[in-house]
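Protocol step 6 of 9: fold each sequence in the batch and record its structure tokens directly after the sequence line. For illustration, a two-sequence batch is reproduced in full.

Sequence one:
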Amino acid sequence: MSHAGGQNGGNRRQAGVCHWHLGGTTSILAAGSTDQGGTGDAPGSMSYLVEIGIVVCLLVLNGWFAMSELAIVSSRRPRLEALAERGVKGARVALELAAKPGHFLSSVQAGITLVGIFAGAYSGATLSDPFSDWLVSLGVPTSAAGILSFVIVVGSISYGSLIIGELVPKQIALSNPERIAARVARSMVILAAIAAPLVYLLEGTSHLLLHLLGVRHATSSTVTEEEIRAVIAEGTSSGIIEPEEKELMAGVMRFSDRSIRAVMIPRPDISGIDLDWDQDKILETVMTSTHSRYPVFRGSIDMVHGVVMAKDLLNKALTDQKLDVEGCIRPADIVPDTVSALDVLETLRRSPLQMVVVVDEYGSVEGLVTIADVLAAIVGTVSTVADADESAIIQRADGSWLIDADLDVGLVADKIECKALDDPDRDYETLAGFVLSVTKEIPSTGDIVEWRGWRFEVIDMDGRRIDKVLVSAPEAA
């Protein structure tokens, strides 16, 4: 009996030796040798710790791939370009990878998949059986030890894979993606070169499947206006962008989408000088107005002769010279009402008077635009001495808004946070235009318009023109 027992013990020792030398490639042998009473080294032994270390290294390698992938994909091109200009090593390589990520991403995905498979197979073959034997030595029934060992080993590897191989590396990558992308770029290029044959096979298979499914590749990567707004909002919430800077950026983006009709001073509000007026009336107009330039016409504003500077007229009046308006006229720039606000801005830059007259297709004057109107369209209404105590948008104590009806509807939509009001397909430019588009008629003071839960009440009319509107948000459900 003792001889048999010694022989069985030798068999167990021999099985353990075979298991150590062949590692994860002999899982069948390891499983078969379990019936003989034990395989491999007990937990806590040096060889078992080495096997655990190999698994940890595989998990770290998986985390390296995950961190590299997310860092390069999340990097912003302007920041990478700035690092490259400062001579940061790897930044230019990271730029090249970010510009053509297809080959790089395929290499990383192949690496992550292979490492994950190898880590799972190796850990299951080398760690589970010795751990089961250790549990049996502690008194755990043999029938339960195998299942319990499998659950503990697989659970531990899965937990470590999530923490070491995914969550922590990705958080590191997002903390400073551009710097990390520059550091890992060269190693990713080497990986892509090594994995090139496998990557070409994977990409070819993927393209074939996409072609069979009728899916076309995107021809280019575009950034939408909504994405830019989201980045600005994120920068504001994190404190990188000041609220005032956010408002200025939003104003610039609104301005680029606006037509000249949304920026111009409309025809009824134009203050001009008629050449048929006498000297006293001309001087009274100049002295009681806050404008520095006036369009000059004869009989009708449609017959514009040019623009006159108020200082030229006042200089003549103060030096007792004859008030020769026609001699002070300067040529006016004329633009059609179909041009965009950006086109008019370019015209204003070239104009020495910084004023343009807007006409329609029939040659009738629709309005005029000055550089101050452009500034007001971007930063909001610019107050003058005459209207310093007035505000175009006033929020009342009950949360409603008292708004000038001639304000741009896009600006109003941003201020009252009613995005639906800023319809890109609209055929109006002002809040008054919106009310008219809903009512389909000229409203009266006190008329109320209900629209998508919002309440618009006409507070004041200036003849047939809507002057003030009280806007109330939908009541909370």
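Sequence two, same batch, same settings:
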Amino acid sequence: MTSQHFDIKPIAGRIGAKIIGIEWSINLSNEIISDIRKALVKHKFMVMFSRHENL
């Protein structure tokens, strides 16, 4: 799965992914929220980093 709003990087083989690049201090659009939900369904759990974290 890809999103034009943020990066999704799998963490483990079958479950888990990182979401990188979302600015959490602003209101998220419905399209971004929809992409987050789709990623959650696909990867089962998410670790989310802000745009300013370099982890």
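Proceed to step 7 once all outputs are recorded. Observation for sequence two: DSSP finds one helix and three strands in the chain.
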